[in-house]
Design a protein that fits this description.
single chain; about 525 residues; alpha+beta; 7-stranded mixed sheet; about 30% helix; globular
Amino acid sequence: MSLRTRLFLLLSLFALTAPVYSQPYPEAIEVLRRYEQRPGVRVTALVRDLQTGETVLAHRTSEAFRPASLVKIPTTGAFLALRGHDYRFHIPVMIRGQVDGETLHGDLVLKASADPSLGSHYIPNQKRLISEVKALLEERGITRITGRLIIDLRGFPRPFFNETWADEDLDEYYGAPISGFNIADNYADLYLFSSDGEQPVVEPNVASLLVPTRQELLLGSSTQLDLTPMRRADTLLISGTVREGLSGRHLRWTMPDPPSYATMWLNEGLRLEGIDLQDRPELNYDELITGLDTLGYYTSLPADTLAKITNFRSSNIYAEGLAYALNSYEQRKTGQPTVMRSYWRERLGLTPTEFYPMDGSGLSPEGRLSSGALSLILSELWRDQSLHKPFLASLPEAGVEGTVRSLSIPSEVTAYLKSGSMRGVRGYAGYLLHEDKWYSIVYIANGAINSAEARATFTRLLTGLFTQQPLPPLPTPTKKVAAKGKKHSEHSKGSKKASHKASSKSSRKGKKR
């Protein structure tokens, strides 16, 4: 580490640990202290002038807090830094065997890339991979394949759930596992239909395509479903019960084994496009496939666009995918953001005490970081000219768009923020523009918090710092101090499943699929 870098970090540390009484905005600190009088509440805040490096406000900046989705800031920042803003995931589309007229006597092979955006709900044309594979085959005149569709996952571990995630999140669409081949954000859209006295029907939609099913369903007093990919039949077996009188209900259903769903989706999609695959598809994790002829490549949207989707939508699967892609094969087995974590520690001299995320998305309740560490990361992303523009563009404008569109902030301030929320956590972090000056800000509340109070305290903090207006009152406290049932309120609509999976949730943690 250079002398200049060490001096910068020492000055930063001095600024972050300056005593509260020396700060120029005692009324803003009082806002935080009054909020901490709520039972169980602890809050940190750090505001810095990005031009001078001056600390405008600091409160509990060296203490570790649960960050929730604020972890997506170091995840997207590290991916942009290590891969570049114009990086694209590439999936080679290959064949092996002999082509005779319109027939390939052999196999179609797609090599996994860990792209988290395949068939995503957040990009246009969810079936683009299917159409591009078809086009590459047609360039060789191939419309019939006597062999198999093979997804080559060699070099990637089998899908599994992060072992530090809470049990209650493992059946939620935002708690899906990551893998080397992802599809449709790794959840299926289920549409349930039943009426009194009639056989119930479930339509499973994966990336805008109805996949083939075999259904063994009965009417019941509640909806209890089990979805099992049947690789030998290239079919999804749907069994269980559907509540009487249910009509048109939409559920989001986590795919515990995304590559298996992807083979069904690709096989059916190519069939509908006129490509006849005669043998059953296959997943390959171990064999070195040789004798391949590359037809071309499917490429993802650029990294800066993927980072923008991650932060605008607070997409856990995108964040986990970016962190997963940075890791080596062995590191991927842990589910932890090993490379991302090491990158920021080494670049900024952060310690495990102040920076220890346990995943790429912030869904883990065990992850911790300090506002001081996150502030240094924001400052570095601002200072680095190769990262400044793409990272700033990845953050939604508060009060206008993304997960912060409903956030109330003073009119004198323009803010580009990432939000973070889960049970017992509410936070905001990013950049503020006030009177032609830019600031970084980190605000995190932990404990038995009321989300409305946490948001209102943030608004009061900005009002006290950047305006001459009287501080708005806090909402009247209610007995219900924390939202229940959702770890991430940013993903609060349509997320509940019809039932738990048949297997024990705790047994799925950290286990390969």
